[in-house]
Amino acid sequence: EKANLALLLDRYKDRFTTLPNEKGWMSQTLYMYQGFWYPSENTFSIETTMALQDTFQALSTDIYLATQPKSGTTWIKALVFAIVNRIRYNYDTTSTHPLLISNPHKCVPFIETEILSKTPTYDYAKAPRLFATHIPYTSLPQSILDAGCRIVYMCRNPKDVLVSWFHFANKLSDKTRSQMTIDEMFEVYSKGLMPYGPYWNHVKEYHKVSSEHPTRILFLTYEDMKIDTANKVKRLAEFLGYPFTEEEEAKGTVEEIVKLCSFENLKEVNKNGDFREGIPNDTFFRAGKVGGWSSDLTTEMSQILDDIWIFHSNQVPVTN
Ligand code: A3P
Q1: Is the shortest distance between the CB of 296 and ligand 1 below 6 Å?
Q2: 202 noted as active-site residue
Q3: CA neighbor of 159 nearest in space, from 50, 318, 43
Q4: Which of 126, 202, 204, 275 is most buried by a 10 A CB count?
Q5: Looking at the domain assignment, is residue 273 inside a domain?
Q6: Which candidate, 166, 184, 155, 195, places its Cα nearest to that of 315?
Q7: Of the listed 134, 167, 202, 207, which one is catalytic?
Q8: Does residue 319 lie in a domain region?
């Protein structure tokens, strides 16, 4: 993967090092490309985005899960995987359902990691292929749009996203870097200087396209999913073309999927081991709450973020 990243860096650096750049999250240099900020030299970077735009081939049967990091990507991956594969696997605890033995990120890969992988783990012969991405709508590889693929977008209230990022970064920080303070985090986040930021523009774009093309893009919020998971799972299944039959509903399949993909269950399954080197499986499961931001953000920070949201994304129904 490192070698492939180096190749992409070499191929694209002349194109992006001349773009506007700023120091942002974790003191990284971020480049402004097609209206969004990207770091370089990692999986979720400007060079992987450019390479995907140049080379990625979508199939019309593909399903894409689009999110900003920390908005519930792991959860939506698990739910969609469980819905689409529900005939293939059983949900009883003795079964070898992939979600009972591995990380949801292993079940649904990011296109950003696939492009770097020498040996993609994904079974390309299978339809539908399930992929995730953090790429903003404007910058999606054209073939995804041309093929008319279904896209599920999951968004989350920006304050919980900020706080989730904050804990995630500090948990992963190694000894070479000091822990980030919430003030530092707030400073960069509120300026939009985050990978794939500004957050509000990412959400706004997908929300707009989803309201224009509701059969192609389903817009979900983490908060609605929490309040009424079963009904949202049914809606998701219909959108994906995998509606539950009356018989399935009667025997409780929807509830089984909700339970299988619940925060508590996935946290337990992923309490040990590493997802990748330096990234323990449990990093993706912290608190899983709505409104948990209030223990980390000051009232003033909250007010500023509310104002930014109202200014940029008032149309988007996100519960703060
Ligand atoms: P917190 O840090 O607020 O707990 P992502 O998957 O996009 O990286 O987002 C991570 C956030 O989703 C974390 O939020 C994590 O705890 C939460 N999360 C992970 N799995 C979840 C699940 N099954 N249900 C609800 N929230 C989940």
Answers
A1: no
A2: no
A3: 318
A4: 202
A5: yes
A6: 155
A7: 134
A8: no
